[in-house]
Structure formats: structure tokens, C-alpha cells
């Protein structure tokens, strides 16, 4: 390789080694101090890159890509607050256990704490939200070039092995561009001859973390067999294979399954053990009074439903077994009695042969019948009510979205409405959302990155405040290779707060929690050259959503609703379900 100067050499080694390791998507925010890295990226024609002017949105985009592909995207930015703008997405990726490589350029050590322009303390910037971090020295011919390669190899291993974020802070001195200097780089890089001739990374790590062995499978099997009235709870799992294993286990145990909308089991699944509308059923005294669980098997991530956590806290089962593929605690009620670190698939494959087959439990029979009644109640209510309301939109999207498309759900009301009102008889789709820190920032960017990684059209259901928070990211949609359909539910403020006890605080509720605004996204759609529709009724929504699904360009479908009316519709729906259950 021909290197112009030592900065160019190190920048190229970093980018090339990441490529050897499997990195194929580099997300770049423009800047000067990061030029050695970006020059190397521009010179490598094999690699895919994405450039965006807003570091915050860029980082969420990279995280969305990692969520779809399950491998690290690489983030690159210049020094100063550019790096700080990565922080919200780093937090979310950390909480979601997603692999991400964050490379921040930095001023050299002699410029730190001197008042030099665009210089902040970037060492340890992301704190405990990274799995591993290193402060790379300025490129220097006195440092063995193999140090650069082994450092990148370790960073990649840490990100993939531990399912998390790593931070590489790279100091660079001038010259930052392709200015020829006097270093003897041919002699300097002789130790890299073997590496330069091979497509493999310099250090090859062999891992066995995909097949975690359970040390006490017989004891775990005994725990499960001892539970008389059990419940399976399913959060985010790895994919269709794991989801199918969950259903196989549920059938053998005869237990009901409460599946979160993020699990992949809520949409397009009609298995008899699945209780799709459990969140509604737990509100019914008639149903909940018949349920007594002495054991819970919680597989995968946490549940969206706070109602579930309230219910199970009151039940206080003697056994609460949780299976997660990482070591972090996921126990807000402090009820977990047995915590197993393993993938859901490895766990089920290990213990299912130790499980005694059972008949369907009484709880499953009660919940299954109530589940069918709830489905009929929702369907008939929405058919009778001609208003284009938020539960209706969730159900229509679940019915119309094609098989194997992506569905990205914003926090607050969209993910809850889809979980509560989706038609399980629709198609099976890839479901995702930012349920790590559960914020409303970066959701358009995350959905765009998810679509890019998935390589399939994605529908994003999002509220108005979340959309306004991330308007910059609409620019990402212009060159997105697959369409992103944004179904925007605009109720003129923070709709979820109307469902919370704070709504009773009349003196300041509307100003401080309702956060009203007069904006629609029609002008923003025009500015970013996106298709736009504002349907006025159910028939019109079906038409424009069907058109958007067929189109090869991204679209915003904005549905205007009323927050007070939205609250009443949710209440009326729940009342109808309870009457039907009675």
C-alpha cells in the first residue's frame, strides 16, 4: 500500500482492518480532524458509506442498521461536541445490547486543556455506556503499526462478544490531508507484509459464546416441572427460529404466552397458547380473579406493558425464571428467583427434553376464550366507529403490511397501540423499536438505518412530538435504497400523558405535559422531497397506505387526531371489551 504520511497510514490501517473484520457500513459526519479516517474510507471502493450532517441522527441511523443486521456499523466524527452528539444513540444501543463501533477524532494531547478550538475532554466521554474504550495515541513511526491492527481487532471483538458499544478516540496532528512528508513508511510497514497479502484480520479471535452451556439443566428442568400454574412471558427474541421454539415449549408445558409486540410473536401468529390481548384482559376483574400463577418463565427482553408488571407483582409467584443472553439485570419488580444467562434458543433446546408434557392449564383455557372475545370486541368497535382514530390506524397497519416487511414502532403510544390493537391474523413482519432507554429521540433516523440494514421496506409508526424531534433525519430518506413509510399520528402534543394520573393536574397539565403545537409535516415533506398524504377517513387511509406500499419512494402519511377524543376512544374500547367478557 502507498501511504502519503503517517496519519494516512494509520487511518488506512484502521479502515482496512475494520473491513477485514466484516464492517461494511460506515456512517460519517463531516469534519476536519477526522479527515485521515475519511480519506481512507473514500479510497476504499469496496465499502458502503453514509454521510449525514447531524451527528445525533447519524448515530441513531447506525444503531438502526446494527439492529437489523446484528453486526456493528461504524460511526466516525470530528472532535468536540460532534462526539457528544453521539451520546443519546450510544445510550440506546448500550441498553439494547447492540454492537456499534464509535470512532471519534480528537486533538493531540498538547492541545488538550489549553483552550484550543473544538477541543473537549473526549476520554471516557460515554462513561459506563460503552463495553470497551481506548484513547489512541497520535500516529507515530515509533509505535509498531501492528498495534493499530490489534487494537481494532480487540475493539471489534469486544463489540461483538459483549453485544455493545466500543469507543475508539483517535488523536491526529497536522497534516490531516494528503500532504507528502519525509517518513520512511515502506520500512515502517514491513511488519505488515503478511497482513497486506491476506483478506483476513491480523488477529483472529475464536469464540464459543454462541453455544453457552447450561451448568445445571436438570435443576432448571426440575424448577419448571415443579410449577403447577405457569405463565410464559416473551420480550425481544433473536428471530423466527427462537420464536418458534418458544411456541413449541409453550405447547409442551400447556401454559399461556404473553408476548410483547417486539417479540415477533404478536403479529402474524395464531398459535393457541398465545394471548394476544393480555394487556386488556388484565384490566378485567372477571378474568384476573380467575388467574393464579405460581411460576413465570420470562424469555428475552422486558415487556412494554406496565399493566403486566403491576399484575405479576400482585401475583407474587414463588418462581420467576428469566433467560437473557447477557448478564445485565432486567428485574424492575425484584421478583426474579432464577436468572439464566443464555440465548433463548440454547436454553429451550437444552431443557425441553427434561420437561414433562402437560395438558392445557386452566389459565390457558380461560385466557384463550377471553382472547377471542377481545378480538371480536375490537374488530366490531372499529368497524362501527367510522372515525380515523389511533387504535384503528394500528389495526389497519397490522392488517395491510405485507409479509416480511419491517415495522418500526415509536415509543409512547404507537408501540402500545400496536401491541393492544394489532390484528394477529395479519402477516408476520420484522418488528423493532428503541426500547432500550425508550426515548422519543432519533426515531426517524433509527427507522431509516433499520430499513437500510434490513434491505426491505419499513413502516414507521410515530407520534408528532417524536417526529418534530427528529426532522433533520427526513433528509436520510432521499437516497434510502428501500422506501420508509412514515405513519405519523399527530394529536397536537404528548398524547400518552392524557392516560397518566398527571392529567388530573388541571392547572398546568396542558402547558407542561400536553405540550400543544400547531404543526403538521406537510411543509417538511415538501422540503425534503417526500410523498405526503393526510387521509381524512378509513377508506382514504387504506388507499394511501396501499399506494405507499407499492411505491418505490418514501412517504409521510399524517393522520390528524384529537387527544381528548383519543383518550375517550381508548376508554370506550376497553369498556366494550369488558362488557363482552362479562
Your description of this structure?
This protein has 582 residues and is of the alpha/beta class. 40% of the residues lie in helices and 15% in strands. The protein has helices at residues 6-21, 35-43, 55-69, 81-84, 87-96, 146-161, 185-188, 193-196, 217-226, 240-253, 278-281, 285-288, 306-315, 344-351, 362-384, 390-400, 413-421, 443-454, 464-469, 509-514, 522-527, 538-550, 563-581; strands spanning 25-28, 48-51, 73-77, 100-106, 132-136, 165-171, 230-234, 257-259, 295-299, 319-324, 338-341, 406-409, 430-433, 458-463, 484-490, 531-533, 555-560. A six-stranded parallel β-sheet has the order 2-1-3-4-6-5, sandwiched between helices. Strands 13-12-14-15-17-16 form a six-stranded parallel β-sheet, with helices on both faces. Strand 14 (458-463), helix 19 and strand 15 form a beta-alpha-beta unit. Helix 1 (6-21) packs across helix 2 (35-43), helix 10 (240-253) runs parallel beside helix 14 and helix 16 runs parallel beside helix 22 (538-550). The radius of gyration is 26 Å and the shape is globular. It starts with 5 loop residues before the first helix and ends with a helix. Mean pLDDT is 93; it is low at 208-214.
Amino acid at each position: 500500500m502507498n501511504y502519503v504520511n503517517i496519519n494516512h497510514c494509520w487511518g488506512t490501517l484502521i479502515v482496512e482492518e475494520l473491513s477485514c473484520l466484516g464492517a461494511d457500513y460506515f456512517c460519517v459526519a463531516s469534519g476536519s480532524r477526522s479527515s485521515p479516517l475519511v480519506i481512507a474510507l473514500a479510497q476504499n471502493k469496496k465499502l458502503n458509506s453514509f454521510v449525514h450532517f447531524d451527528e445525533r441522527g447519524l448515530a441513531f441511523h447506525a444503531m438502526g442498521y446494527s439492529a437489523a443486521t446484528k453486526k456493528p456499523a461504524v460511526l466516525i466524527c470530528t472532535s468536540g461536541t460532534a462526539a457528544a452528539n453521539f451520546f443519546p444513540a450510544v445510550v440506546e444501543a448500550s441498553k439494547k445490547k447492540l454492537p456499534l463501533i464509535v470512532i471519534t477524532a480528537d486533538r493531540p494531547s498538547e492541545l488538550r486543556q489549553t483552550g484550543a478550538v473544538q477541543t473537549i475532554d473526549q476520554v471516557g466521554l460515554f462513561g459506563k455506556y460503552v463495553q470497551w474504550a481506548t484513547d489512541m495515541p497520535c500516529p507515530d513511526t515509533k509505535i509498531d503499526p501492528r498495534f493499530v491492527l490489534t487494537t481494532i481487532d480487540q475493539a471489534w471483538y469486544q463489540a461483538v462478544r459483549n453485544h455493545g458499544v466500543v469507543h475508539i478516540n483517535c488523536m491526529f496532528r497536522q497534516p490531516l490531508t494528503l500532504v507528502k512528508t519525509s517518513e520512511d513508511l515502506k520500512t515502517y510497514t514491513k511488519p505488515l507484509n503478511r497482513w497486506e497479502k491476506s483478506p483476513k484480520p491480523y488477529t483472529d479471535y475464536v469464540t464459543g459464546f454462541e453455544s453457552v452451556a447450561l451448568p445445571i439443566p436438570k435443576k432448571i428442568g426440575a424448577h419448571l416441572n415443579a410449577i403447577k400454574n405457569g405463565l410464559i412471558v416473551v420480550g425481544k427474541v433473536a428471530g423466527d427460529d427462537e420464536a418458534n421454539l418458544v411456541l413449541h415449549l409453550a405447547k409442551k408445558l400447556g401454559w399461556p404466552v404473553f408476548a410483547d409486540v417486539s417479540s415477533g410473536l404478536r403479529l402474524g401468529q395464531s398459535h393457541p397458547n398465545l394471548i394476544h390481548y393480555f394487556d386488556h384482559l388484565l384490566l378485567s376483574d372477571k378474568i384476573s380473579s380467575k388467574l393464579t400463577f405460581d411460576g413465570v418463565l420470562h424469555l428475552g427482553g422486558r415487556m412494554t406493558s406496565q399493566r403486566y408488571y403491576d399484575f405479576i407483582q400482585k401475583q407474587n409467584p414463588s418462581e420467576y425464571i428469566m433467560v437473557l443472553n447477557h448478564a445485565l439485570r432486567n428485574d424492575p419488580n425484584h421478583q426474579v428467583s432464577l436468572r439464566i444467562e443464555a440465548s433463548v434458543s440454547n436454553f429451550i433446546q437444552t431443557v425441553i427434553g427434561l420437561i414433562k408434557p402437560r395438558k392445557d392449564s386452566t389459565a390457558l383455557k380461560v385466557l384463550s376464550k377471553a382472547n377471542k372475545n377481545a378480538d371480536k370486541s375490537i374488530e366490531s368497535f372499529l368497524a362501527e366507529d367510522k372515525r380515523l382514530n389511533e387504535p384503528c390506524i394500528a389495526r389497519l397497519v397490522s392488517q395491510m403490511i405485507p409479509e416480511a416487511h419491517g415495522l418500526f414502532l415509536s415509543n409512547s403510544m404507537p408501540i402500545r397501540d400496536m401491541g393492544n390493537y394489532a390484528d394477529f391474523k395479519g402477516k408476520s413482519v420484522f418488528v423493532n423499536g428503541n426500547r432500550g432507554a425508550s426515548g422519543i429521540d432519533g426515531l426517524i433516523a433509527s427507522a431509516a438505518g433499520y430499513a437500510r440494514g434490513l434491505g426491505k421496506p419499513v413502516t414507521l409508526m410515530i407520534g408528532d412530538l417524536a417526529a418534530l424531534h427528529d426532522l433533520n433525519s427526513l433528509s436520510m430518506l432521499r437516497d434510502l435504497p428501500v422506501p420508509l413509510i412514515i405513519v405519523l399520528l399527530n394529536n397536537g402534543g404528548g398524547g400518552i400523558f392524557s392516560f397518566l394520573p398527571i392529567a388530573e393536574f388541571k392547572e398546568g397539565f396542558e402547558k407542561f405535559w400536553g405540550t400543544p403545537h400547531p404543526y403538521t409535516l406537510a411543509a417538511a415533506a415538501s422540503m425534503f422531497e417526500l410523498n405526503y398524504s393526510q387521509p381524512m377517513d378509513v377508506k382514504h387511509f387504506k388507499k394511501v397506505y396501499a399506494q405507499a406500499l407499492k411505491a418505490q419512494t418514501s412517504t409521510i402519511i399524517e393522520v390528524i387526531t384529537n387527544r381528548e377524543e383519543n383518550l375517550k376512544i381508548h376508554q370506550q374500547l376497553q369498556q366494550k371489551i369488558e362488557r363482552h367478557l362479562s
